[in-house]
């Protein structure tokens, strides 16, 4: 299995504060993953600090499995 996180940072990479915003997204979802079985098909949308959807994460089958 693979854990895939995709985040669209926009044209200005979160207004020049990409490291802070990506860190916040990673901390939030890292703290909430225990609510999921983490099996293929699981996933959720990800939002920035302005509550705008910017991507999501998902669990997928790895190639060859």
Task: Walk me through this protein's architecture.
The protein is α+β, with helices and mostly antiparallel strands. It has one domain (2-60). Helices cover 23% and strands 29% of the residues. It has one helix at 18-32, and strands at residues 2-7, 43-47, 53-60. The protein has a 3-stranded antiparallel beta sheet with strand order 1-3-2, covered by helices on one side. The protein is elongated, with a radius of gyration of 13 Å. The relative contact order is 0.30. The mean pLDDT is 91.
Question: Average pLDDT across residues?
Answer: 91
Q: What are the low-pLDDT stretches, counting only 5+ consecutive residues below 50?
A: none
State Rg.
13 Å
**Number of domain modules:** 1
**Any idea what the shape is?**
elongated
Spatial order of the strands forming the largest sheet: 1-3-2
Share of residues in helices: 10-25%
Helical/strand content category: alpha+beta
- Terminal CA distance reads 8 Å
Element string (H = helix, E = strand)? EHEE
Question: Can you count the helices?
Answer: 1
Largest sheet: 3 strands, antiparallel
Strand content: 25-35%
Instruction: Work out the number of β strands.
Output: 3
